[in-house]
Structure formats: structure tokens, C-alpha cells
């Protein structure tokens, strides 16, 4: 496989790389799937997906992190996205580990593996001392990922017009 210098992180099974404008089709697999997007306000169309990519690329430039594309290491197959993004919680800016994967790969541990790599990256490379995940109160699989990477339930807030649980981990 050719060397790609856009890789941000690698684990045993996956690579995380910077998102780019060629990822519209990849992301549409998730964003157009009502089951995968159940806990988001709505699915996204191609135009909204392009805006998502632009927002992500600006996060890389402005904050040194963002959501990254997760690919299977051996094949380069698109699996999902995971990374570290800014969120405002009760008026405070926090760094969130976010993850969203294609439904066809659910249950294989990719979200946990990617989130764990992002946690390590946030603490070791970005110098963070605390990170959160904001999770819909009914999204049990995402809650389990947060718990598997050492996050603990902290509080319930109202964000995006619904109840959201804040999970956190600190150094």
C-alpha cells in the first residue's frame, strides 16, 4: 500500500486520516442511512456532507484536530469517522471524542479502537487533560464505547433540542 502522509493515527487494524473533498461518497454511506443517523437531527444530503467536510477541514487548520476518516488498515476500506472536536457545554468549550461508523461494520470493535486511539492522541499529542463525549441518552452502543475507553457518566444536559449525556475522562 502506498505511503499516505495524511494518516494521523494508526492502530493494529485501522488508520485514521484527514478528511478531504473526495470523501463525500464515503460519508454519504453513513449520512444517508436513517438507522446510522438515528440519534442525529436528520440524515444529510450531498450538499450538507460537503459542508461537513469543509467544517472538518477548517477544524484541522484552526484547532489541530477534527474528525478523521477511519479505514481498515489492510484494505483501505472506509469504516467511518472518529476524532476530536470542540463542543460547548454549559458555556464551556470542551474537546469531544466523536465517532460515527458505517452500519455494515457495527459490532466489530472499530469505534472503540478508534476512540481509544483518539483519547491517547488527545492526551499525549494535544496535551489535553480532559475529554468528553456527548451521547444521546438512548444511544446504548455509543455509551458502551465511551465506557470501554474509560469515560464515566458526568451529567445530563439539553443540547440540540434533546437530552444528552456527558461522559468524560481526565488524565
Please tell me about this protein's structure:
- This protein is of the alpha+beta class.
- It has a single domain, classed as 3-Layer(aba) Sandwich (Aminopeptidase), CATH 3.40.630.
- It has 4 helices and 8 strands.
- The strands form 2 sheets. A 5-stranded antiparallel β-sheet has the order 1-2-3-4-5, sandwiched between helices. Strands 6-8-7 form a 3-stranded antiparallel β-sheet.
- The longest helix has 18 residues.
- The protein is globular and about 35 Å long.
- The mean pLDDT is 94.
Give a quick precis of the structure.
With 171 residues, the protein is α+β, with helices and mostly antiparallel strands. It is 29% helix and 36% strand.
Q: Structural class of the helices, strands and pairings?
A: alpha+beta
Provide the spatial order of strands within the biggest beta sheet: 1-2-3-4-5
Distance from N terminus to C terminus (CA atoms, Å) equals 36 Å
User: Can you name the CATH architecture?
Assistant: 3-Layer(aba) Sandwich
State the main characteristics.
29% helix, three-stranded antiparallel β-sheet, five-stranded antiparallel β-sheet, 171 residues, Aminopeptidase, alpha+beta
Task: Set down the secondary structure blueprint.
Elements: E1 7-10, E2 14-18, H1 24-31, H2 46-63, E3 67-72, E4 78-89, E5 92-101, H3 110-124, E6 130-136, H4 140-148, E7 152-159, E8 162-170
Antiparallel strand pairs: 1-2, 2-3, 3-4, 4-5, 6-8, 7-8
Helix pairs in contact: 1-2
Amino acid at each position: 500500500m502506498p505511503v499516505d502522509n495524511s494518516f494521523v493515527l494508526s492502530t493494529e487494524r485501522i488508520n485514521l486520516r484527514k478528511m478531504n473533498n473526495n470523501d463525500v461518497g464515503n460519508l454519504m454511506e453513513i449520512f444517508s442511512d436513517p438507522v446510522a443517523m438515528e440519534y442525529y437531527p436528520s440524515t444529510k444530503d450531498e450538499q450538507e456532507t460537503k459542508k461537513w467536510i469543509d467544517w472538518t477541514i477548517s477544524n484541522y487548520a484552526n484547532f489541530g484536530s477534527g474528525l478523521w476518516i477511519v479505514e481498515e488498515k489492510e484494505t483501505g476500506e472506509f469504516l467511518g469517522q472518529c476524532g476530536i472536536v470542540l463542543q460547548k457545554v454549559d458555556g464551556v468549550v470542551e474537546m469531544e471524542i466523536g465517532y460515527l461508523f458505517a452500519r455494515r461494520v457495527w459490532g466489530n470493535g472499530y469505534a472503540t479502537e478508534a476512540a481509544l486511539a483518539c483519547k491517547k492522541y488527545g492526551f499525549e499529542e494535544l496535551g489535553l487533560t480532559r475529554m468528553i463525549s456527548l451521547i444521546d441518552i438512548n444511544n446504548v452502543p455509543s455509551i458502551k464505547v465511551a465506557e470501554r475507553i474509560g469515560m464515566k457518566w458526568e451529567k445530563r444536559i439539553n443540547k440540540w433540542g434533546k437530552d444528552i449525556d456527558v461522559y468524560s475522562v481526565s488524565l
